[in-house]
Amino acid sequence: MNKLGKGMIISVIVFLFAMSPWAVVSAQEIKIGVIGPMKFVQGIGQWNGATMAAEEINAKGGIQVGNKKMKIKLVQADSNEFLNVTDATNAMERLMTQDKVDLVVGGFRSEAVLAMQDIAMDHKKIFIGIGAAHPELCERVAKNYNTYKYWFRGSPFNSTYLVRTAFIHLGTVGAVMKQSLNIPMIKVAIVMEKAMWADPMIPAAQGAIPKMGMEIAGVWRPSPVATDVTAELSAIQSSGAQIIFEIFSSSVGIPFSRQAGELKIPAFQVGINVEAQKEGFWQATQGMGNYVMTSDTYARGVEYNELTKPFVDGYIKRFREVPTYTADTYTAIVYGLAPVIEQAGTLDSDKLVSILEERVYKIPAGTVKYMKNAEGKPLHDLTWGPGFTTGIATQWQDGKIMGVWPYKWKLTPESPEVTYKGVVPIKLPPWMIEKYKK
Amino acid sequence: MNLIINIIIGGLISGSTFALLAIGFSLIFGVARIVNFAHTAFYMLAAYCIYVAAQLMGLHPIWGMLAAIVLVALLGMISYKALINPIREHEGAVLIATIALAMIFQEVMSLIFTGTYLSVPALIGGYFKLLGVKVFYQQLLTFCAALLVMVVLWVLLMKTKLGLAIRSTAQDREVANLMGINEARVAMMTMGLSVGLAAFTGAIVVPLTVLEPQMWGGPLVMMMAVVVLGGLGSIKGSFIAAYILGFAEALVVFLAPMGAYLKGSVALSIMILVLLIRPEGLFGVYFEEER
Questions:
Q1: Cβ count within 10 A of residue A309
Q2: Domain tally, chain A
Q3: Interstrand relation of A360-363 and A268-273 (parallel, antiparallel or unpaired)
Q4: In this structure, is residue A235 part of a structural domain?
Q5: According to the model, what pLDDT value does residue A18 have?
Q6: Do residue A329 and residue A352 come from a single domain?
């Protein structure tokens, strides 16, 4: 067969395929890109959450768009953003130009998400961020609304509120220790990984801790990928610190907790330890991470509202682990995008934006209301506070992640007390009680 | 006083890990002039072997350790035969090939185990107090292992026929060949020994660290700093340089806690400083031979 003949046959096959029922089916689908570091726990959580959402919606026949039901088709994009930001932008570009997705959820590292955001905005596609916490992502919306209006924060709330919440947790632990161990002046060691996002937290902590009636024992900045921190721990113990206020988003959270537990350093660990939010933390620390307390989003048995339990239990049943905040891709699709598409009756991004930014709706981790800045411009950022999103604090108690905050928490002395269902009191490590209890 | 003891203990422990890695690297470079950038990737593979044996199969970590040393040493020899030996005369190509090998190992581990951080139990759990400073038994084991490896290696090189062959090959490959030594076989066996040492290091150190596919990158940089500082190919030099950099790291952590993350950079700066004064390193073999 000559070349012309082969070419004609291929052309006919392509034409027939384009006209086939499969092609018609694909037009009846809503393509949602799920982008994240898929070889890592964060990306796996994003994919799992989205998978659960798609299965749930498709089982009901799909999303009603105008007069037709459209099923969800997920497209996975591995951003590899922990290792290479360029891989992340390439993955987003592929979602836009080759896969031609209708919507995108995911992203994790703020540096990478800022770059990915630009690409999605260029293509005027809605991008709900699930993972990155930098405020700039939403400040861009206020600064240049027409370009960045397609961006919305899904989870977690921004880093300013993350820090504020971590300080509240620190104050709570301080109060518990003062009360149960009768320590008049508590010394706090500030331990934050050397990363850009943690840098502004040092002066903030140095300013806030004395105002909370506690003393600063010192500041330590280990590398985010340090594997041996025994020297730092020796120095912290020598400083006489009774609380370690830690900020770790990287692997250093594991050796730090493991070695502190194994050496029985008499100081309570509280703050943000992303690794401690995962169920694998117990294995990773060989059980030495007991009593570590961290800001968190979900825990077995803890309920923000009536939506939490079905989501957490369903996730555990499906994936055999408690969801972390990156699994909020579920929330973004089921409670954010699906109702908005049904209401708009179209996939037109501009129409979806105008509905989504005004909506106030419940999610398993609270209630979403998108903020406006001081000038009244839309930020598409999550409102923080009682009645909206607050997060929780969890503590490892004998091999289980237990919710320990909010427990009779008041935002201001006049505010009503907040306690989420299933939250239990904080436990102090026995070696601390032995050392400090008089 | 407490500070000084802390620095001494911290330096000895970090130095022992560096020494274990650098000795193996120096060995293969000294004998076969192979710059094996995959050395710490073999260390990573050994760590995963122990994880599989101890965590997934429920065996005592010691069995995992033995299996890791044997399997990884074999893999090292196979890699040498299949990948390095055919291009051995082109040092640049060997260098690139070993980097590629390390990347392949990393990606394979990522595919199997994902990027999840894992760990294995210590061979000897718990800690003891030395002059008021808490020291893990596992850290003591690392220190003793470094000394033991040095002694065993000395005996092997100085008191056995294989050692004689290795030393002869290291001194002059062509003459060794003319004297009837199968130089290619010696190089392969040295590769096995070198990689076996990397596996042994992985086995000893892994309970003190976090297991992940990229765990070979950091130690590679420090190991290179040690061997360059000690003098490329000099085992004695590597051993001493490892402790110099170990103490440098400990000094940074204790004297500048806000700059603890700089401990690696400070160690590397010391290396550069020494090289400016003494370009061949402390016990340079390579440069002396080149003159």
A1: 17
A2: 2
A3: unpaired
A4: yes
A5: 47
A6: yes
* Domain carrying residue A309: 3-156+305-382
**CA neighbor of A198 nearest in space, from A176, A217, A224, A175:** A224
Name the pLDDT band for A418 (thresholds 50, 70, 90): very high
Residues A274 and A309 in one domain: no
Instruction: Pick B250's closest partner by Cβ from A231, A255, A280.
Output: A231
Which residue in B130, B221, B253 has the most chain A C-beta atoms within 10 A of its own C-beta, making it the best mutation to test that interface? B253
Tokens (6 digits) for A80: 């590899």
Domain residue limits, chain B: 2-290
Distance from CA of B2 to the nearest CA of A (A): 8
Position A13 confidence tier, pLDDT thresholds 50, 70, 90: low
If you average pLDDT over every residue of chain A, what do you get?
A: 91
Cβ distance B117 to A254 less than 8 Å, yes or no, reads yes
* pLDDT value for A22: 44
Whether A309 and chain B come into contact, CB under 8 Å, resolves to no
Rounded mean pLDDT, B186-191: 90
Task: Report the CATH number at residue A61.
Answer: 3.40.50.2300
Q: B175: which residues sit within 8 A by CB, 6+ positions away?
A: B168
The whole-angstrom separation of Cα B282 and Cα B267 is 15
Query: Tokens at residue B87, please?
Result: 């291009």
Does one domain contain both A221 and A238? yes
Q: Is residue A179 part of a domain?
A: yes
Chain segment B58-74, per-residue pLDDT in tens: 998 889 999 999 999 99
In a domain, residue A35? The reply is: yes
pLDDT in tens, A128-169: 999 998 899 999 999 999 999 999 999 999 988 999 999 999
Strands (E), A156-281: 187-192, 215-220, 243-248, 268-273
Cα–Cα distance, A193 to A134 (Å, whole number): 17
Are the CB atoms for B197 and B149 separated by under 8 Å?
Answer: yes
With beta carbons under 8 A apart, name residues in chain A contacting B253: 231-232, 235
Q: Is the pLDDT of residue A9 over 80?
A: no
pTM across the whole model: 0.81
Sheet containing strand A378-382, edge to edge, reads A360-363, A366-372, A378-382
Q: Which residues pair with A368 in a beta bridge?
A: A361
Q: Please tell me which residue of chain B has the smallest CA distance to A262.
A: B126
Check if A286 contacts B (Cβ < 8 Å).
yes
Whether A375 and A425 share a structural domain: no
CB-nearest to A219 from B136, B250, B257 is: B257
Kindly identify which residue of chain B lies nearest to residue A232, measuring between CA atoms.
B253
* A64: DSSP letter: E
* B-chain residues near A283 (CB < 8 A): 55, 118-119
- Contact check, Cβ <8 Å, B115/A220: no
Using CA atoms, how far apart are residues A164 and B132, in angstroms rounded to an integer?
A: 37
The first and second tokens of residue A198, run together, are 């943690």
CB proximity A238 to B under 8 Å: yes
Chain A residue nearest residue B108, CA to CA: A39
Rounded distance between C-alpha atoms, residue B216 and residue B202, angstroms: 10
From CA B266, how far away is CA B261, in angstroms rounded?
A: 10
Q: CB distance A285–B119 less than 8 Å? A: yes
Lowest model confidence (mean pLDDT) among A165-169, B195-199, B285-289 = B285-289
Candidates 1.10.3470, 1.10.3210, 1.10.3860, 1.10.357; CATH matching B2-290: 1.10.3470
Query: pLDDT tens for residues B141-169?
Result: 888 988 898 899 889 988 999 889 888 88
